[in-house]
Amino acid sequence: EVQLQAYGGGLVQPGGCLRLSCAASGFRFSSYAMSWVRQAPGKDREFVAGIRWSGGNRYYADSVKGRFTISKEGAKSTAWLQMNNLKPEDTAVYYCALRWGSTVHTTPQRYTYWGQGTQVTVSS
């Protein structure tokens, strides 16, 4: 059974930083994509960043380019999201998500497996 566990959320002041991690387990395939998706109160889920596991290609939403960095460690099937210069509009529940294949989709509905979500609050 595929499982994703996300960690690292919290409360941070504007301009601060956080690092989220997502550990995947329960499978042996090497062709998949892992992404971070967030959902703010009253809004739809929004793609934030994604990485192709084989090859390491990275993709970002325009709203986080230059501030967020997605990375991975293949041996541990773990992905990280380094979030710098956080803004109040980054406040949301952040989910890690996984789909089979080499395409990083920016549409959250294209992901099959989801972690439990971790709250990120940016406030002074």
Helix content: under 10%
Number of helical segments with 4 or more residues? 0
* Rg for CA atoms: 13 Å
Distance between the termini: 40 Å
Unreliable spans are none
Largest sheet: 7 strands, mixed
What is the N-to-C succession of helices and strands? EEEEEEEEEEE
Range of strand content: over 45%
Strand count:
11
- Indicate the overall shape: globular
Structural class designation:
mainly beta
* Average pLDDT, all residues: 93
Describe the structure.
This protein has 124 residues and is mainly β. The chain is built from no helices and 11 strands. It has strands at residues 3-7, 10-12, 18-25, 32-39, 46-52, 58-60, 68-73, 78-83, 92-100, 113-114, 118-122. The strands form 2 sheets. Strands 2, 4, 5, 6, 9, 10 and 11 form a 7-stranded mixed sheet that branches. A 4-stranded antiparallel sheet has the order 1-3-8-7, with no helix packed on it. A hairpin with a 6-residue loop joins strand 4 (32-39) and strand 5. It is globular. The model has no long low-confidence stretch (mean pLDDT 93).
Provide the descriptors you would attach to this structure in a database record.
124 residues; mainly beta; 7-stranded mixed beta sheet; 4-stranded antiparallel beta sheet; 11 strands; globular
